[in-house]
Amino acid sequence: MAVIPFASYVDRSISETLMHSFKEKVVVILGAAGRDNMGQVMARRFAAEGAKVVVAGRHESPLADLATEIGGESQVCDITRKADVEALAEAVWQRHGRAHVAINCTGWGLLAKLLDTTEEQLDRLSALHFKGTFFFMQAFVGRMSRSGGGSVITVSSASVRAVLYHHAAYIATKAASEALVRCFANEFGGKGVKVNALAPGFTETPMTATESKLPGLLDLFRKEYPLGRIGTAQDVAEAALWLASEASFVTGETLQINGGLTLRRNPSPAEINAALKAAAPPRS
Q: Rounded to 5 degrees, what are φ and ψ at 151?
């Protein structure tokens, strides 16, 4: 009898488990309106595994285009409006009877100094990262707990653990979303619902496109990543796929999808300025 290498057996087993996990399963992804953003990359990845994907966000046209591309469905939803989130969940249950996976990819990466952060900015971030996440979990965890279980995932940030200067309001509200993960996971695990978070670091997405083009910046950040590269939206999508699958016996956790950044730190403003200055083309 031929001997199958252990690594090959593991790879094949995981692949078969994932395919079995998502065939005809209903996956809802909120925050998928931005072109090639994290939500869109996740939507394509789950669709490739046979899932029925419902994409949602604030802008109708790109959502409809994505739904057509992946053979899914779309719905406009602003996560800061409880009625919108409830309407999204109710529509999914009306059309499909349940959702097996629900993922919140929304976020706003405000950079503002501690003493300059305004009340308006705090309100906006709190509405998006804390209240919105609360609404999302109420709507989907609650319904899943009455429908045989499921998996709910929210996207947090490595900066909760590897502090980034001028990012305090963002960090604090993302940390609040991680606290919600633990609370909902604890209360609804007995109903078959897994609740987790993903924490990427600096990730090459449209949201970071401007920063990624600054000479010297990526090289500076890359030095703090033990795995030697900046993360991609595909990295996060693969993690979401595993975390939501039957192969994952995990709940109440924040999975660090950042190449080991949280073992180290983010660069300081002085280091960033020095790197940008050193990499800038010489003046003529």
A: -135, 125
Cβ-Cβ contacts under 8 Å for 223 (sequence gap 6 or more): none
DSSP 268: P
Segment 13-57, tens digit of pLDDT: 556 656 558 999 999 999 999 999 999 999 999 999 999 999 999
Mean pLDDT score across all residues of the chain: 91
- Element housing 246 (H / E): none
Buried b (16+ CB within 10 A) or exposed e, 58-77: beeebbbebbeebebbbbeb
Within 10 angstroms of residue 97's Cβ, the number of other Cβ atoms is: 10
How is the chain split into domains, by residue range? 13-205+230-262
Residue written as token pair 């609360």: 134
Helix (H, G, I), strand (E, B) or coil at 245: coil
Q: Is the dihedral of CA 209, 34, 157, 18 positive or negative?
A: negative
**Using CA atoms, how far apart are residues 108 and 139, in angstroms rounded to an integer?**
22
Reference 245, options 50, 37, 21; nearest CA is 21
Q: For strand 231-232 and strand 150-155, is the pairing parallel, antiparallel, or unpaired? A: unpaired
Q: Which residues pair with 150 in a beta bridge?
A: 193
pTM over 0.70? The answer is yes
CATH architecture of the domain 13-205+230-262 equals 3-Layer(aba) Sandwich (3.40)
Distance CA 36, CA 206 (A): 7
